[in-house]
Design brief:
Length: about 375
């Protein structure tokens, strides 16, 4: 498997926050610097066999007293983990687990994995810090922490990409889900100069490039506890009918293919992404897990589509705007809040007036 998946830091302002971190380092008594937050090595706690010669509990030595104190870094991580179990895990369950299934997987199983694997632990800590930042609590400080733990997790993650096994798959899949939500959230906390289309391109191509971890290991996923997140069968077919408004929108997009495509290959790409859009709209028109909106569309589309979108191809953007309606419907989630409407408005601002009829449905659906 290629190790060049786009699990790079999704925030172009990472270096800026590292500079902020270095500023924090210079403050007296600060323990929030990247160097101080790096994971410590194996525990050197006294083993049970050594306790027979240890001082009694009533005559603790000075060195033992010093060892008994938690560092500021350890307290910070405990605080982030507490926030994760108390608040962040619920936001993940609400977004990714159907209401008729076990909602505790992000509270219990994910934490179990984190206690066994530093990859998942850094992932959960990064989302906890990012959740606090998105909630407006010490935003700059928690953004630094989110980036820090995300980057540590990525460093551990990359070697796994060429060695996915039954033993490590559950942690790899869990971290992949974390990266997807982090990609949406970190853009809200950064001061990136990228425009909306560039940001969305980064996020959706990152999700698209996670296909080897999901589709290529589908049997491992089916046998893991994460299978609760899988879309239940029977799967819908493309011939299922949508509302009149959706059918009219899709017909307008298909009509544009013949007059927009320059080559047969380009026409095939247009048809493929319109079919992907139709499939996602069918999925979201029935009781399905909400997260399918985030992953199915990016994973179905050919790689050529993303270049078209980034280059502001009108038909590619029109498809994106209509897909954004499904993101807009997830707006109650703190991770998705505002993204759908922002995507539609960005496309509307780029497209020439003669294309506006292709996104009129999306504009109506996202109008405040």
């Amino acid at each position: 498997m290629s190790s060049n998946l786009m699990f790079i830091s999704s925030d172009p302002t990472t270096e800026r926050y590292k500079k902020i971190a270095s500023t924090v380092e210079s403050r007296p008594g600060s323990d929030l610097t990247p160097s101080s937050m790096i994971s410590r090595g194996p525990s050197t706690d006294t083993s049970p066999a050594d306790t027979s010669t240890s001082p009694s509990f009533t005559s603790t030595s000075e060195s033992n007293v010093a060892d008994s104190h938690f560092s500021d870094t350890e307290r910070e991580r405990l605080r982030l983990m507490h926030h994760y179990t108390l608040h962040t895990a619920k936001t993940l369950a609400d977004l990714s687990i159907p209401t008729d299934r076990d909602q505790t997987i992000w509270h219990n199983f994910a934490v179990e994995l984190a206690l066994e694997n530093d990859l998942m632990l850094h992932g959960l800590l990064s989302l906890s810090a990012l959740h606090l930042a998105l909630s407006g609590i010490s935003k700059a400080r928690h953004t630094i922490l989110a980036i820090h733990h995300h980057d540590l997790g990525l460093a551990l993650f990359r070697p796994y990409l060429t060695n996915i096994t039954a033993q490590n798959y559950e942690s790899i899949f869990g971290f992949t889900c974390i990266v997807m939500l982090y990609a949406f959230g970190i853009q809200r906390c950064s001061e990136s100069t990228a425009n909306t289309i560039e940001k969305v391109h980064q996020i959706l191509t990152l999700i698209s490039n996670s296909r080897p971890i999901t589709k290529s290991h589908i049997q491992a996923l089916r046998h893991s506890r994460w299978s609760i997140m899988m879309m239940p069968e029977p799967y819908p077919t493309l011939d299922e009918k949508l509302s009149d408004e959706m059918e009219a929108m899709l017909a307008k997009l298909m009509q544009r293919v013949s007059i927009t495509a320059i080559t047969p290959s380009q026409a095939e790409t247009y048809v493929a992404v319109i079919q992907s859009l139709r499939y996602v709209l069918i999925l979201t028109s029935t009781p399905r897990p909400a997260h399918v909106t985030l992953v199915i569309f990016p994973m179905l589309n050919p790689s050529e589509y993303w270049d078209m979108m980034l280059n502001h191809d009108p038909l590619a953007l029109a498809v994106l705007a209509n897909y954004a309606v499904t993101i807009h419907r997830l707006g109650r989630s703190i991770w998705m809040e505002g993204w759908g409407k922002e995507m539609v408005d960005a496309v509307h601002a780029i497209l020439a007036p003669e294309w506006h009829d292709c996104i009129s449905w999306a504009l109506d659906e996202t109008r405040e």
